[in-house]
Amino acid sequence: MLVKIKYLTIKYQMMNTINVKRLGLAFGATGALLYFGCAMLMFIVGHDGTVMFFNFLLHGIDVSSIVRMDIPPVEELIGLVLTFILAGLTGVCVAVFYNLSLKK
User: Fold this and answer.
1) Radius of gyration over alpha carbons of the chain, in Å?
2) What is the mean pLDDT of each run of 10 residues along the chain (104 residues)?
3) What residue segments make up the domains of the chain, in order of their start?
4) Distance from the CA of 20 to the CA of which of 26, 28, 35, 97 falls in 20 to 30 A?
5) pLDDT tens for residues 57-83?
6) Contact 98, 35 (CB under 8 A)
7) How many other CB atoms are there within 10 angstroms of residue 54's CB atom?
8) CA angle at residue 50 from 30 to 78, to 5 degrees?
9) Residue 70 half-sphere exposure, CB side, CA atoms within 13 Å?
C-alpha cells in the first residue's frame, strides 16, 4: 500500500511539471509573433496610426517623439531574433522556477 501511494505521489509530481524546452519555445514563438504583429501594424497603418495605437495601449503616454518608421530590414530581423531569444529565456525561467517549487 505504501509503495502504491509513493508511486502515485511521484506520478502526480511528474504530471504537474512543465517541460522547460516546450514552454521556452512557446514563449519565444509568442514573443516573435507579437514583434511581427507590431512590425505589420507599423507597415499597414503608418506613423499616425502607430502613434495612436501605442498611445491607447500605454494609457495616453505620447510616443510620437520616439516612434521611428524608417527601420532597415536587417534591424527588423535582428529585433525579431532577439525578441524570440529573450522571450524564450523568460519561458525557460518560468518553467524552471515552477518545477523547483514542486520539490519539497
Assistant:
1) 21
2) 59 76 98 97 96 92 94 96 98 95 78
3) 21-102
4) 35
5) 998 799 999 999 999 999 999 999 999
6) no
7) 18
8) 45
9) 0
* Cβ neighbours around 81 below 10 Å, total: 13
DSSP conformation letters of the chain: -HHHHHHHHHHHHHHT---HHHHHHHHHHHHHHHHHHHHHHHHHHHHHHHHHHHHHHTTT---TTT------HHHHHHHHHHHHHHHHHHHHHHHHHHHHHH--
- pLDDT mean across residues, the chain: 90
User: Roughly what angle, to the nearest 10 degrees, separates helices 73-102 and 20-57?
Assistant: 120
Listed in sequence order, the residues at least 6 apart from 24 whose beta carbon sits closer than 8 Å to its beta carbon are 88, 89, 91, 92, 95
The cell for 64 is 510620437
